[in-house]
From TrEMBL:
GO terms for molecular function: DNA binding; transposase activity. Residues 17-159 form the Transposase IS110-like N-terminal domain. It comes from Streptomyces guryensis. GO terms for biological process: DNA transposition. This is IS110 family transposase. NCBIfam families: transpos_IS110.
């Protein structure tokens, strides 16, 4: 630890910086003009966090603390600092050019975080705990999909090299019928056949178990996301997975999102200026949160395939000479603007609890309703259950039921 006479510095404004790790945090203190005061290392325990805060306060009045990794290794310190009434800002990792110039060590990174808080380059409020449960469920559900895909790929690879009799027997099957058939296997035959069939049966059962686990996790995730932000979940084309990802990217505290343009940049859908001399143009952003970008992309695809207004927009843009990629880019930017409104304001979702009882009371089937409005029965079912929002269709449906 280096020190510069802390006794006579109490009363001045100082800024802190934290480089966080799994077992330790390195804390640095700088003055209001960026001068280095001191740095020290502390364990990632409650006692360590208290000692780190006391170390910061001993050098003056703490104006702000820049923390690298507020949602990962720095979570514990961030909570402790905010509970103590201190201002914490989120600091990004130094870029490669900066690290090539100044090197890499815990004290260097901690001082860089402190200077980022001092200069205002780091100004984002850390994410609060309201999306912690959503993040956990989302990660668990995603991992079941990856594991299920890996198991299905293994089944395909085994069948490629399996004996001819096994390949011939299951060649005509694919997807769920294949998994169901393999899960019911009773391995028989010589040693090779028995081993191959046993492996296929084990993998098929794994696929079925993972599918059931994914459905269970998705149902819980859907309930949590809907309770957290019903307006976002009810938006057209927004499912449990995409809603969860957008909430994780934005964080639960609304004050993190200042403008819809900054949110679009965060999601990597804001056009980036690429002008030079007489050339005046923009290019596609390749930065931002790629998972959020992928979520907006999936919403755009859903709307392009089944939303009437979006399909009309795509037709107009295609007639104007835009390519499909350009149209999708425009749609993602527009969807980001809409999502920002759901994330930053309370959007009231119209009550649809009366639709299903009214339909059932008049003994009208979903198929009959779907046929009348020219949509699939699943669309009407989703509107009745509140998992899909289409206010115009819901109102027309309610008026039709009243007149039926």
């Amino acid at each position: 630890m280096t020190s510069a006479g802390t006794a006579d510095m109490v009363g001045q404004w100082v800024f802190g910086g934290v480089d966080s790790h799994a077992d330790t945090i390195h804390v640095a203190v700088v003055t209001g003009n960026g001068g280095h005061l001191a740095d020290a290392e502390f364990p990632t325990t409650s006692a360590g966090y208290a000692a780190a805060l006391a170390f910061l306060s001993a050098h003056g009045d703490v104006a702000a603390i820049g923390v690298e990794g507020t949602a990962s290794y720095g979570t514990g310190f961030t909570h402790a600092a905010r509970a103590d009434g201190l201002t914490v800002v989120e600091v990004n990792r130094p870029d490669r050019a900066e690290r090539r110039r100044s090197g890499k060590s815990d004290p260097i990174d901690a001082y860089a975080a402190a200077r980022a808080a001092l200069s205002g380059r780091a100004s984002s409020t850390p994410k609060d705990e309201t999306v912690t449960g959503i993040r956990a469920l989302h990660n668990a559900a995603r991992s079941t999909v990856k594991a299920r895909t890996a198991a299905m790929n293994q089944i395909g690879h085994i069948l490629i090299g399996a004996p001819d009799t096994i390949r011939a027997h299951y060649r005509a099957l694919d997807g769920k019928p294949l998994i169901d058939a393999l899960a019911r296997l009773r391995p028989t035959g010589d040693a090779v056949h028995t081993a191959v069939l046993t492996a296929l049966k084990s993998l098929a059962r794994r696929v079925k178990a993972l599918a059931a686990e994914h459905d269970e996790l998705t149902a819980v995730l859907d309930a949590v996301v809907t309770g957290h932000n019903p307006g976002l979940r009810a938006a057209y084309g927004v499912g449990p997975d995409t809603a969860a990802q957008l909430l994780i990217t934005a964080g639960g505290n609304r004050d993190r999102l200042r403008t819809e343009a900054s949110f679009a940049a965060l999601c990597g859908v804001a056009p980036v200026p690429a002008s030079s001399g007489k050339t005046n143009r923009h290019r596609l952003s390749r930065g931002g949160d790629r998972a959020a970008n992928a979520a907006l992309y999936r919403i755009a695809l859903v709307r392009m395939s089944s939303d009437r207004r979006t399909r009309d927009y795509v037709t107009r843009q295609s007639t104007a000479g835009r390519t499909k990629k350009e149209i999708i880019r425009l749609l993602k930017r527009a969807i980001a603007r809409e999502v920002f409104r759901y994330l930053t304001t309370t959007v009231t979702v119209p009550d649809i609890a009366d639709l299903r009882p009214a339909r059932q009371a008049k003994n009208i089937t979903l198929t009959a309703v779907a046929h009348h409005f020219g949509v699939r029965p699943a669309v009407i079912s989703c509107i009745e259950r509140g998992t899909r929002r289409d206010d115009d269709l819901a109102n027309a449906y309610r008026n039709w039921l009243q007149a039926a």
